[in-house]
Structures are given as C-alpha cells and as structure tokens.
Amino acid sequence: MLRKPQTVVLLLLLGSVALLCVRPAAANQLWHDVNRYDAHGNECKLHEKDDVVCSNLCVADISNCPSSLQPSCPDNQSFCADGQCHDQCTDEIQAQNPCHCERSGKKLPAEAVDLVPCMSIPNVTIYEFHPWNSQVDIRNACGSEAGIADQSKTVGVWGSTWIGGNIDAVWAECPKAPAPNYKYSEGYWLATFIVNGALAVFLALWSVYKYWAERGIRAAPSYSSGSSENASSLGNDGIAALPKIAGKETLGDDIDKGGSASEKVPALSAQVAGDQAGSLGQGITLCGYNSNIFGTFCVWSIAAVTVLWICYMGVWTADYYGSLPGWRHGVTYSLSYESSFLELASFLFVWGITFIILIALYIVKPRLRNHFRIRTLPSKGQLVCVTRPVHDIKLVDEKVNWVQHRINRLTERLIVALSRDREYTTCPVDVTSGNLIYFTYQCTRYIFDRSTEQFAPFEFDTGTNHRRLVAQARGLSSEEAFNRQELVGPNFIEVKALNIFMGFAREFSGFFYIYQFIFLWAFYFYQYYQVGLVDTGIVLLSATIKVTLRMQSERRLKRMAEQEEEVLVLRDGKWAKMTTRHLVAGDIVEVTAGAHMSCDCILLSGNAIMDESSLTGEPLPIRKFPLHIDDGEFDPAGSGKISTLYAGTIVSQVQPVAKASDSLESDRVLALVWHTGTMSEKGQLVRKILFPNPITFIFNEQMRIVIFILVLYAGFVMGMAAYLYQGNSTAIVFFGVFALSQLCSPILPAAMVIGQSVAAVRLRKKQVYCVDPQRIMIAGKVQIFCFDKTGTLTKEGLEFYGGQCVDSATGKFKTFETSLPSTDTLFQQAVASCHAVAELNGQLIGNPVDIEQFRASKATIDPAPEYLDAVIPPEGSAFGKTHIVRRFEFVHARASMSVTVLDEATNTLHVFVKGSFERIKTLSRCESVPPSYDETCANLAREGCYVLAFAHKKIDAVDQTKIKDFTQDELESGCDLLGLLVFKNMLKDDTAQAIAELKGGSTRTVMITGDTALTGIYIARQCGMLPADSRVLLGECKTQIDEIQWVDVDTMEPVKDIIPYLAELGSDGFSTTELAVNGAAFERLCHTGEIDALTFNIRVFARMKPSHKVECIEQHMKYGVTAMCGDGGNDCGALRAAHVGIALSDAEASIVSPFSSSDRSIMSCVQLLIESRAGLATSFANFAALICYGQVMSGMVKMASFYFAISLTENLWMLIDGAVATGMMLTISLSGPAKWLAPSRPTSRILGPQMLASVGGTVFINWLFGAMVYVWLFQQDWFRCNEHSTAEVDPNQWWLLGDNYEAAILSFTSAFQFINNGLLVNYGYRFRAAWYKNYALLVVWAFLITFVSYMLLADPNRVGCAFRLNCGTASVLESDFGTKVTWNIEPYNSLLGHNVIPKPSRYALWGYCIGNMVASNVWQLFFINGPVRRLLREKKPLRRLKVKL
Asked: CA separation (Å) from 573 to 320, 447, 456?
C-alpha cells in the first residue's frame, strides 16, 4: 500500500503518460486505498455504520435455520416462501422467494431451486466498519445477530458456494439484476427502423435507376479543360476570358437548332482577351444534369430524415428531464424503462448518428443535389455544373518546418479526398428567343457554340483604330442589337443579396457551427443546459455580427452594381428611349448630365465631366475628351482613359461640340457602348468582390497543427477517462465529450472574430472604413508601407511658385519670376491655354496641376466656346481671347499634352506643348534649349518643386479645317522651348509625424510616384522617409534596353558601380546609401532580374506608370506583408494588388481597396496599423485564454475528476463556463489599442515561441500547483480517513460528485486559475493599452476573485452553500459547526455530510491559490513580456524581414 501522499500525487501526474492497464477494485482508487491510513501512516479509526440491512439466510430445509430464525407464525397463518407469515401461501407469494434472486425457469440455478428463506434478520449496527471490506463486515455482523458461531465453515454465498458438505445455509447476496434493455418492438424504435429503412431502400433504388439512366453518357467521350482543344477560359480569379466577335458574324449558321448524337462533353472556350491572358485555370469541367422527380424526392427524404434525427435528439433530451407530454410527463427516463444507463446509451447513439449525418452532409454538400439528378451532356441538360479548382491566396507565406509540411500535405490530401479542392456551381440552362442554349455563371452568360462544341462568353470587337471606332457613330440596327443581346445577355449585373433567414442558413452550414451545435446539444442533455444556453448566446451573437456585416456589404454592392435607368439610343438611325438593360456593345447613346453610366463607353463627340469617386475614390471630377479622328490605336490602359466613360461613374456635366477640328461634330454628346455587364471595368470589380479566392493566413496554416494536436490529446483524455474513471462506459463517453468540448471550446471561432470586429468598429469611429474585416488581421502584420506622393504625402493642390522663361535671342534662361505677368507674353498665353480645365457650377474641374496652373494665369473660361474651348485673358494681357482649336490631352505614356490655339487678336495659330521637363526637352529644338537646362530643372526638383516645361511653335497660314489632318507628332515637332512653370509641392501637416511613427513601428516606408525622382527624393527627405544625411543615388534610363545611369543627387557626379556604396554600413548595420529609380530603370532592373537584390535599397520609385506601381507592389509582396496608400486615382491597381490597400477617399467605402479613409491623412495609416495590431493581439489573447482554459480543464481538473470520481459542483461549472470564460473573453476584447506603434508586430503564429512559451508556461504552472495542492491535502489530518469513496456514489449523476473535500479543493484551485487566465492574456502594452486601463476586465476580474475568496474564507453561508462549497447537510452544520441554517440545502451524499474546510486551512489554501496567481503573473510579466524576453530577443532574435526602415 502507498502511504506517502507525495508518492500518490507523483503517480497522479505520471498518469498522463501511464499505460492503460487492469482496472482497480471498485472500492479503491487506482494508486491508494480510500480511508485506510491517516496522515501519519496509521490505520484510520473505523466508523460506526448504523441500520445495516442483512441479506436473507437460505436453507434447503427450514429446520436447518438457526434457532433465532426459525419460523414462528400465529396459529391461523403459515410461513411462506417469501420469508413472511401469510394466511395462505399463494403461487404469487411463493414466486417471491428471495432465495431465487428474482430468477425463474432456466435462469434459476439448479442449486437454488429448493432453497427457502429463514426468518428475516433485524438491521444491525457495525461498530468498526471497513469500507474496503464491507461485505465481510456485514456477514459477520448479521451472522452474530442470527447466532451463527462460525459461519465461514457452515454458511456459503449465493452463486459462489452452495449447500453441500459442511455448508447448510447460504447468504442470499443476489447478483445485480440484469439491466433492462429494449425489445426493439417499441413504437419509437419501430418508427426509427421503418423511416431509415425506407430511406435506405429509396437510396438503393435511386442508385440502380441512376446507373441505368446514365448508361448513354458513360459511353460518350469526356473531356476536361486540361485538353488542348477544350482548355478552360476561367482564370484563377474567376474572370472569364472572352472570345472577341465582331458584328453580325458572331456565330452565323454554326449555331443550329438541333444537336449531334456524338456531341462531346464540352469545356469552356480557351480564347483569351484583355488582361486575363495567361491566367487560364486548369481542370475546369462542365457536367450537364436533368432533374428527376424520384431524385428530388430522395433529396427531400434525406432532409426530412436529418430533421427527424435532430428532433429525435430533442425527444430524448425532453425524456431525460421528464418533459415529454402525456402520461410520460414528470417521469424521467420513461423511454428507457427508467434506467439512467439505458437513457444515456440511447442518447449517445442518437447523438452520434446525428453527428455522423451532419458531417456527411457537410462533406457531400457541394455534390449532393447533382447526385440525385441524371447526368447528361451540358448542352442537353436542364442544368450545368461548373467545377473549378480552388487556389488559396497565401497572404503571409513563411518557411514551414517538417511537421508543418507533413500536416499540410496530409491536409491537402484530405481536402482532395473530400473534393474540397474544387468549387461546384450549378447553373440552370436556358434558351434564348433565338434558340441559343446558354447558362449564366458568375454573372456572365455562356453560349453554346455548336461549331466548336463549347460554351463560351462573347465580347464584341468594336475595334481599336480611332477612325473605325468613330465610324460606328451611326449606331446599330434593331436586328444587330437583338442578335448581340442574345449572345451577351442584358446589360445588368444581378447581385443576389440573401434575406436574413438564408443569410443565417448559409452561415450555419459551416463545419465549426456543426461542431458547436452537436457539442452544445450534449450540454443541453446532460444537466448542463445553463452553460449550453450561454455558449449558444455567444455563438449566435458572433454569427449575427458576421451575417449582419456580410448582408450590409452585399446590399451595398447590390445598390452599386444594379443600375438601370432610361437613356437615348440611336437605333435604325433614329433616337429611341430605352433602359440601359438593353444596351449592347456598338450602341450609340446620348450622354446627359446626371446620368449614371451603366456600361463602359467611348466618348465620340463633345466633352464630359465625370465623377469617378464611387469607382476609384478620386475626389475630384475628371474631364473626358472625345476620341480623335486619326489612325491612332485606342489604348484602354493608356491614352484611351481620357476618352472612356466607366460604368459606375456619374456624369456631372456635358458640353456638345458643334465645331471641332479633330473629333466628331454633333449637337449631342455621343458615346459608343464598349463593354457591358461584367465585361465592364465595374463589372470585373464586382465579380472579384462577389467571387473572391479563399485567403490563407499563417494562422490558418498553423491552426491545422493545433487541431491535429488537440485531436490526439482528446483521444488521450478519453483513454485516461477509461483508465482512471470508476464509472460505466456511457459516463466515460459523456465525460470525454465534455473534455473534448472544453479542450477546443465551441466559442473559439467567436473569440477569434470578436477582436477584428471590435477593431473594425474603432476604425470606423476614426473615419477608416473596412469592407473586408478579415484583412484587419493582415494589416496587423504589415512590414512595408508604400505611398503615392501627390495628394497622399503632399497636399492635394500645388502652390504656384513662379516661372522662368528662355531668352530666344541668347538661348539662355532669364531670371526666375514669382509673378506670372512678369514673364513673356507667349509663356503667359501657354499657361492660360495649355490645359484641360473646365468649369462646373462655378468650380474648376480637371487635373489638380492644370487647375493650379490656370488659376495662376488669372484667365477665365468662356462658357459658350466657338471651338473646343475658349480662354478669356485677364485684363491688361498682351494676348487676346484664345480659342482651343485642337487638343491632345495629357497621357502618362507620353508625359505631355498639347493644344492648337487661335489668338483672336492676331488671328494666329499657335501650338503649345506642356509636359515633364525631360519630355519637353526631347520635343524641343536643340538650339532653343539652354545649356543649363538640366541643372536648372534638377535644382528646382531637388528643392521639392513640381516643374513643368512649355514649348511653342507658330503655324503658318493654313486652312483651319485642315488642322485636324495633322498628327500629334507633326504638330509637336520643331517647337522652341518657352520656359519652365514651377509649383511647390507642400507636405501635409502630419505627414512627417506619420512617417516617423510608422518607422518607429518597424515598418519600412517606400514612395511610388509618377512625379520626378528629384522631387520625390526631396519630399522623402522632408517627411523623414529618407534620412537627411543619407547619400542618395539616382538610377535613370530612357528605355528598358538602355543601361542605367547612376548619379549622386547631391553632387550630380556619375557613379559607375553602386555596389561599393551599398556595402558601406552604418551603425545600424544597414547601408548608408539609398537608391531611387525612374520607371524605365525599374523596368530594366525587372528585366535583368537585379530588382530582387536591390528592392530594399530603393526608397523612391519615380515616374511610375500605373502598371509599374502594380509590379512594384507585387515585388515587395514577395518579401513581406505590403500595404499601399493612395488617393484612388491612377493607383487603383496597386491598391487592389497589395495585401492591404487604403484609399484616401471621401467615399465611405471604396471598392478598389479593403480600407478607405475620409480623413485623407496618412495618419489614417498609422491608426489602421495601431488598431489592426491591437485587434490581432486581442484575437490571439482570446485564443490563448481559451486554450489555457481547455488545457487546465482537461489537465488537472479532468484527471483529478477521473481519478477521484469527483466533479466540480453544478453551479460552479456554470460560474466557470458562463461567467468566467465568457465574461473574461468579452472584456479582453474591450482592451483598447496602444497610443503608439510598437517597434515590433504581434505574433501571427499560434505555434510561435511567444505563444508556446506563454500558454505552455501558464499551463505548467497551473498543473504544478494543481498537483501540489493534493500533496498538501493528503497531509491534512482533517482530510485523511474522510476521503471520498467511489463505491458509494453513482458516477452517472455527476452533479452529485462535488460533496467532498477532493472536489472542494479542486473547485477553489481551478476557479482561481480560470479567473487569473483572463488577466494574464491582458498583458502586452506594446500593442494594446496597458492592462490596468481595461477597466471592464479589471472590474470583472476583481469581482470574481472577491466572490470566490468569500466562498473560500467565510464560514458556511448561503452563497457557499449555493455552490455546495464549505457547506453541508443542514443538520450537520448545526450540530458540528453551530451554524443555524435558514435556507434550503439538499442533503450531502457523503458519509461525512459536509465539505467544510477548517478555518486555518482555508487561509492556507487561499494563500496557496494567490501564490499560484502570483507565479503565473510573474511568468507573464518578467519572462513573456518583460526583461527576460528582451534579453532573449537581443541574443537570439527571431527570423524577421531585416530591412532598413
């Protein structure tokens, strides 16, 4: 026997790795005898046991009974076989023979047939009762009462020693009666078998019928999209590639009415158009299906049976509580013959079957409906199922270890096996009025082309040549429009916004909700419904938040996408009014002010001012110009933008041009419909929002390992339950289910979501709006922040600084003039006319630079121009009213614009060209360019000036009507340089502070601008992005095939080799030299592959086109989490491409980026990172708290519960799960963000060293204290010999297993641990506000600590008795403790009758628990978040992106 308590507890700890061995005797614990020895090793003083019932003594002949037990009945009665005296021994009385142990017939042993009982022995008192040897004590006491001298030789035991030899009597210690069982003829079981049997028959018949009905399709050849001729046209982003078809020759006679018997199973067309080239998705297939009445019946049968199984669980739950209606009401276990074991086993069976059904339905859900349809050819079916591979987007891709790699491989194989690597979309097949077969997939119509035997979307090629586009101004005929609409469908994007019911149905169909549902139902059943209701409330709250946010987003998108209004369309040469739904590519529409563009159009005639804020976030209206009538090519991504009216934008103002030199003349503003529906710019954005690819974060990757570990650990806990627990199998299963649910809490998903939800609410209060809350966690890990310059780092508008003209006589610069009237007349006229500014309701509209330029000229715009535009010079000017005869708008690719003007005063034609000083130098005659031109421009740019250059030439007398025949190159050639127009690009007031905070937050800042490199470098230095004393080398070249020329921007000295400069390291270990490149140099570096080595040496990317910005963002994304901030103008692509994009837009939500800020300050970027880091830290704090909760609960609490066959009291369970776990989780989420960005980012790895050390250390400390408290307990005299005996209780009634000292100690120790866990994870001031500022958490924590301390330290009272702690049976409390009980207490189910801990021991235990809390807090404060962690970081820093900030 083990007498030392230390050994007992040590073995209890080692039990976590013990082998499963033989079960111990029911009266003892596994490793010690209960109540055998006291704390000093002496045998316990035996207790007296009163009123013990004796078994009947059975004999073969009544004369063999001891004399005291000889029958003695009144004269008129007889002694019967039931051991009693009766008037008559009837057959019924005789059948109640106690010596037959309720057995008869073949079940009655032959030795017991003739046994009869003696007279009953009165109840006895055992003065020295041995609990571990209770049966022997009872026999001896009863034998002594009967006067049997030596019963060991003369009396046997029923079933083991029968009468014979010296044995002349046996004790009727009957074996337990067989447990009741079902006959399975009960109505509820018959109904179960019939319903499920019928379903099995239906499914079998369907399988046979389906096999027979699909015999034809199985014989047909099948092609997937992997084949060359049937390759898919869907890219990974879900946007379809479009075969371009022109005019009426769309499909011609190839589309006929009939079908071929040998038709191939088609795939989507492989022809690619536009920006989707090169992104074909592989493995996409189409399958056709026809609905079937029998199949539909089977589907509804499965749904009905599933609902019935769920209802069946409800029936058994109601029966458990005696809540069934009718005669069963008030009768517990009525369905199981009032057997608790049978009730629990039955519920487990129903519960398990329901769980299996729900999981199976979840697995087969994508393919279930089509399984009950008849497969056929896609063109022959009523439905088409599109199967598309799913490719996750990994936003944070880190190197994985061997374990992670193996688990990822295992997960991927499981995903493939369950077909979760594919997306299944079933679309109804329809037929147009022209008998064309089609289906709609992701808002796009796919037409079946019988000539190619493929389904494909169609886009009409309107051409790219300017003349060809303008030539279509005559419009379409009704027949042409009808044919085109048959192929592309209506110009309308239908967004299905689910109602509230369907929204919740979609949400609750996820795996985690099935897990939560099934485990919470076990709570409802097993006397734990209060906590189940609390957890259900948390789950519903989390789901409601998610559904509400998703529905709001869908409705907002629906309002934006579904636009329809009336418009004038030119059909059959006549103007007709119709809705925008009927527009097709090639239509000519009249553009009117206030109209909402529903499709992409090309402006053919007149001017338009467009509000594009809802599409791009650009706050200022944009002026659009008609297409020039020349042989130029329409470039939608370049020069064509200024003539494109995008869907989703609003027409602010229109200006017809009746007299134009190079564009279509009309008294209406005309536009050619270019792209409709999802083919438009807005349509593609809507599709990307509606059908995004799944996003994988590092958290998702490592969560797989956590789940794998938890599953293994749960299995281990179940094994330990079977090994240690002294109960039956059903009780073991239930306790294992509880352990699993506590190990991986059902509210864990809600805990992970609530952090980012709170962060989203806080961001909104700071005018930062989020349309994708999932990105908040990504934003918390941003390592690189890229910025546009103009309007982002600097103020929206430029300030006029001055001008510097060229002396035409000397060819040198004149003095710099800060007043424009002091400059040359031609220069003034150029400034007043060479722009694209318009006036709308008294407000100047156009490019901000053009607006500031025009304001500097003091000129005004003629509201009724004779030509394109007219400028009225300011009073006193030397030039007259200037008419804009022809204009070539600014194009990023050319970096210039030009106008041909007519001076009304002199009737002279002039050509003015404006652009970047580099571009204008190449356009100007060499002799007109001053020798100091480059130096002057560089110096101005170095001072942060925005420099524009002007050139001019005078056109000799020519017919103005012939001006339109000149190309742009012909008009701009041979110009003379006029001078420079200089603006100051001023920083926003808080830009420098924001950059400093970002860099202080370990975030590298980068500039990506379309401005000159020198201006960008100046701004970067001004805002602190570049250190003021750093050397900056500028790399420039004209094209990507030229060599890059490097120069020192401060000395302008050329640098042949930059490597030695980059090798010079500063005190921080990074290079003291920074690089800047222009767009061409960036292209060159990308082309040669050198960009990878220089990415983090380049601080300023200048002269970057929109496509360059996207490439630059993608380059940075290779190495770290990258964010982009811009104004939503020409950086839309970069904002969409970045991990995190934030648009500085007045709109509440911009669809070009997941975040937008109406504050228009880059301090919004700082706030985004602060809140996102706090949200990420909060989510992981909740995760850590719940994991600690699960580990402590399934560790010492469950192991001790299994070993001692005890449980926390019912109300304490409610307190821990309902108040502690839930209350602490909610208050943890209320922790505010830090005031400043910390020099590091919160961990995103749940298996990282910080998380493992934090959780592992806390769990170990709690386990250690939880074990040592039992060492202390086994040393207490008041505990030893008063231990809980497992032989005296029913483990199925778990709520009655807490009335003992073992459970009381466990209750108090674990309660303090659970409460303290919430405080521990609240530390971490780096990313969140200091722990003492989370007032809600502190109040809850203090209240709970005080509450539990009161229960522990106070004498027996109403509060403690409500939790059955430090309490006892009322009579015991009054007799032993003098406590007068005025409240109701259910009698304790222990021999001692109470679990009141002596007062000195209470204070000792309280101090012990406080010591546990102190140790855990010291671990967190000094090791995890304190000096030890800082020391380890210095000596062994974690692998991070090492870049110069």
From this structure: 80, 29, 31
* Residue owning tokens 């338009």: 608
Residue that is written with structure tokens 């000017």 in the block: 877
Residue 1091 CA to chain centroid, in angstroms? 34
In this predicted structure, the answer to whether residue 1033 has a pLDDT above a threshold of 80 is: yes
For residue 169, what are the CA distances in angstroms to 65, 348, 921, 1109? 8, 44, 127, 102
Helix (H, G, I), strand (E, B) or coil at 905: coil
Give me the pLDDT at residue 1147, please.
Answer: 54
| Alpha-carbon distances of 390 from 236, 240, 271, 874, rounded to whole Å | 8, 15, 21, 63
Give the H or E element holding residue 955.
strand 945-955
Q: 447-494: per-residue pLDDT in tens? A: 888 887 888 888 788 888 888 998 898 999 999 999 888 888 899 888
317-330 pLDDT, tens digit each: 999 888 888 777 87
And the tokens for 887?
A: 């204009």
What's the mean pLDDT in 1006-1033?
A: 87
- Alpha helices by DSSP H, listed for 1388-1444, are 1399-1418, 1427-1435
Return the pLDDT at 988: 87
Per the DSSP assignment, residues forming a β-bridge with 1122 are 784
Amino acid at 933: Y
Q: Please report the DSSP string for 719-734 in residue order.
A: HHHHHH--S-HHHHHH
Task: Match 């399984």 to its residue by tokens.
Answer: 371
What is the separation, in whole angstroms, between the first and last Cα of the chain? Answer: 68
Strand residue runs (E) in 158-239: 169-171
Upper half-sphere CA count for residue 1292 (Cβ side, 13 Å): 12
Give which of 437, 425, 435 is closest to 381, Cα–Cα: 437
Q: Reduce the DSSP state of residue 988 to 3 states and report it.
A: coil
DSSP assignment of 410-461: HHHHHHHHTTTTEEEEEEEEEE-TT--EEEEETTEEEEEETTTTEEE--EE-
What's the token pair of residue 711? Answer: 């599953």
pLDDT digits (tens, 9 = 90+) for 1163-1208: 999 999 999 898 888 888 888 887 787 777 766 777 787 778 787 8
Note the pTM of the prediction, 2 decimals. 0.74
Please, are residues 1006 and 930 in contact by the beta-carbon 8 Å criterion?
A: no
Q: Which two tokens stand for residue 730?
A: 């059903």
pLDDT of residue 292: 93
Contact 78, 85 (CB under 8 A): yes
For every residue of 1263-1309, DSSP letters joined together read HHHHHHHHHHHTT-TTTTTSPPPGGGS-TT-GGGS-SSHHHHHHHHH
Give the model's pLDDT for residue 914.
92
Per DSSP bridges, beta strands 695-696 and 393-394 are parallel
Query: Quick check: 568 pLDDT over 70?
Result: yes
Residues contacting residue 1377 through CB under 8 Å, at least 6 positions apart: 1355, 1356, 1368, 1394, 1396
Sequence-separated (6 or more) residues with CB below 8 Å from residue 421: 389, 390, 412, 415
Percent composition of the chain: helix, strand, coil (DSSP 3-state, to 5)? 45, 20, 40
Residue 21's pLDDT is 32
Nearest-angstrom CA–CA distance, 1159 and 1163: 9
What is the DSSP code string of 772-819?
-TTHHHHHTT--EEEE-IIIIIB-SS-EEEEEEEB-TTTSSB---BSS
- Closest by CA to 1082, choosing from 1031, 995, 1007, 985, is 1007
Give one DSSP letter per residue of 1170-1205, joined into a string.
HHHHHHHHHHHHHHHHHHHHHHHIIIIIHHHHHHHT
Compare 1214 and 1403 and report the one with higher pLDDT. 1403
Q: How many CB atoms lie within 10 A of CB 257?
A: 10
| Rounded distance between C-alpha atoms, residue 51 and residue 147, angstroms | 18
Model confidence at 616, pLDDT cuts 50, 70, 90, reads low
Closest CA to 1328 of 1398, 1247, 1425: 1425
Q: How far apart are CA 681 and CA 523, in angstroms?
A: 52
